[in-house]
């Protein structure tokens, strides 16, 4: 499973000009399910998203990366994005590494439910699976990080922090 986390001041999802979900301060999670992903990957990702220390210490703003979304009592907006598993092949997007629709829906729904179970249900919102969504966000920082569930399994670092925005886009948004 792959996720791109954006620390936001606010975010919302609209489908067919209808507001579906919105949050205030928190994390916007673009989550994609790969064809090799399992329930274990989903459970790892849900836990890691909530534990990601993306905010500074309240008493010492210079002490960066000290608090997570639960510590600040923020909100989480989850948006399914199979294109995280895409790459460009002969100038066209190729998504063969993404899970099939049924598997992706089942595992993505489990991800959202697991995040809700581990946090406060009323603070976890969702987009619409397999819909054309308009996602608006007001970045906080900006802070954007990428996470892959397989990184945790092999003991690599939790996040791949990207300070150079052009490098972030090349690695995270296909």
From TrEMBL:
Its EC number is 3.1.1.96. It holds the Pfam family Tyr_Deacylase. It catalyses: a D-aminoacyl-tRNA + H2O = a tRNA + a D-alpha-amino acid + H(+); glycyl-tRNA(Ala) + H2O = tRNA(Ala) + glycine + H(+). SUPFAM superfamilies: DTD-like (SSF69500). Gene3D superfamilies: D-tyrosyl-tRNA(Tyr) deacylase. It is an enzyme of class 3 (hydrolase). It is found in: Cytoplasm. Belongs to the DTD family. PANTHER family: D-AMINOACYL-TRNA DEACYLASE 1, D-TYROSYL-TRNA TYR DEACYLASE. This is D-aminoacyl-tRNA deacylase.
